[in-house]
Design a protein that fits this description.
Blueprint lengths: L4 H10 L1 H4 L3 H24 L2 H6 L3 H11 L1 E4 L2 E4 L5 E4 L15 E3 L5 E4 L5 E4 L3 E6 L2 E7 L4 E2 L8 E4 L2 E5 L4 E5 L3 E9 L17 H8 L11 H10 L6 H33 L7 H16 L2 H12 L3 H24 L4 H9 L4 H40 L2 H11 L3 H30 L5
Antiparallel strand pairs: 1-13, 2-3, 2-13, 4-5, 5-6, 6-7, 7-8, 8-9, 10-11, 11-12, 12-13
């Protein structure tokens, strides 16, 4: 449908703002997108993103990722002067002493066979280690100074200085030296997650453990089977369930207590910062600058500061959350107070109510749902933040998580703690949302 020139001129004259938009309105969006692209290009070169990606240890990252959902048995097959081979296990030994291991078997001639699935295996002796890859045998010669691989070997076998590295993919790796063979045999799942090898219940899976809990015959006469199963699970020395759960509860206490103290302090201070409540501009300005100061210092910095003062533990974590949230909550509380409906206050003033009564009955009922909602949101957020500040010495599961990462061999335990944190955050997020919905109504209503 077309319009006449006269009608067009009339519309132009009546709605000039629509037809004669300024430069920013016409070109603001493409200019903003162009600026964003230019900034990303600048950041790419300034931070050397390309070389960082190219030089990344992606093979190592793949191994770490596999460790999240699998476990590695890591025996060292040490060579004795008498020609014997003795397996030595790490402190997180996955098998009880004297257990029969189907993939690690001694032979009649004193050698040891290590199978990696299919035709892949090692035949270990003190003079030569036969590496079998895809059905082909490659002898690794053992000398007093080094382990030497032949020239025609596949990419799975690599001569690395005086040692030979063998990669069997997900099934594991081997490091062959002049005095030992270090084996890493990988299996899907988490080894000994329920019970450690020293427990009488070792070898029981989840379903057999549940059946044992309801069995009439007691394993330990001193306690019921349910208590005994729980005791053996919590005191698992390899996975340390009791310690991890205690640290998780410590993290939750840090988040709750820190947020609670911040709420209790920010509530009265916000009345001083609100200009319509406290008619004193210097007091308003000073209180708002106080909020700006304590919230401008990041929670992690506060945690480092208090850790130096109080030492490792939950107190620095609580103090860090308390200081940061006092500033943040004080600011949002004051803004909520400055936007209250003054009609209720004016009505109470007209009947001669005291300033305390005016705030108690004319202001607090208006802002209380907002205050509680904000505090619940901060409590939910601090459940995650307490994990991070715990890693710098403030205690809780964050410190336990950092310790497991530092060993570089407990990534399955790292995955376990991450899943616990995700579960707790999910639960608290839903609890917080349910309470907020009851206070201020569900979204969209």
């Amino acid at each position: 449908m077309s319009i006449s020139i006269a009608e067009r001129n009339r519309l132009h004259a009546k709605y000039p703002a629509v037809f004669r938009q300024n430069l920013f309105r016409r070109w603001g969006l493409p200019l903003g997108l162009g600026a964003a692209v230019l900034y990303l290009v600048f950041a790419w070169f300034f931070f050397n993103v390309g070389p960082a990606i190219q030089n990344g240890k992606w093979d190592r990252a793949s191994i770490y990722l596999q460790d999240w959902f699998s476990w590695r048995a890591t025996p060292r097959l040490r060579f004795g002067e008498d020609g014997s081979i003795t397996p030595q296990w790490s402190s997180r030994g996955q098998y009880p002493e004297g257990a029969t291991i189907d993939w690690l078997t001694p032979n009649a001639d004193g050698s040891v066979s290590v199978t990696f699935g299919g035709d892949d295996r090692l035949e270990v002796s003190t003079s030569v280690v036969d590496v079998v890859v895809d059905g082909q045998t490659y002898p690794i010669t053992i000398t007093p100074d080094a382990a030497l691989a032949p020239d025609d070997v596949p990419t799975a076998i690599e001569q690395d200085g005086q040692k030979v590295l063998v990669n069997f993919g997900f099934a594991g790796q081997a490091e062959i030296r002049s005095n030992q063979v270090y084996v890493q045999r990988r299996f899907f799942g988490w080894a000994n997650f329920l019970y450690d090898p020293k427990s009488p219940l070792w070898g029981n899976d989840l379903f057999s453990s549940i059946g044992l809990m309801f069995s009439g015959d007691r394993v330990n006469p001193a306690m019921s089977n349910a208590q005994y199963v729980l005791d053996q699970w919590l005191n698992n020395q390899a996975w340390q369930h009791a310690d991890i759960l205690a640290k998780l509860m410590q993290t939750l206490v840090m988040a709750f207590v820190g947020t609670l103290f911040a709420t209790l302090l920010a509530f009265p201070l916000a009345f001083i910062a609100a200009r319509n409540i406290t008619a004193n501009r210097p007091a308003n300005w000073a209180m708002k600058r106080f909020f700006d100061f304590i919230r401008s210092v990041d929670m992690l910095i506060w945690a480092l500061f208090f850790t130096r003062g109080f030492g490792p533990g939950p107190i620095p974590g609580i103090a860090a959350i308390f200081f940061t949230d006092t500033g943040a909550l004080g600011k949002v509380y004051a803004e909520a107070l400055e936007n209250v409906d003054d009609k209720q206050r004016e009505g109470m003033q007209s009947v001669g109510a005291s300033p305390m009564a005016i705030n108690r009955f004319g202001v607090v009922p208006q802002v209380l749902p907002v205050f509680v909602s904000q505090s619940l949101y901060f409590w939910e957020s601090n459940t995650r933040s307490a994990t991070v500040i715990g890693a710098v010495g403030a205690g809780g599961i964050g410190l336990k998580l950092l310790e497991s990462m530092g060993t570089n061999s407990d990534w399955d335990k790292v995955a376990y703690m991450v899943l616990l944190i995700l579960l707790v955050v999910f639960i608290f997020d839903n609890i917080s949302n349910a309470i907020r919905s009851r206070l201020i109504g569900p979204a969209g209503h």
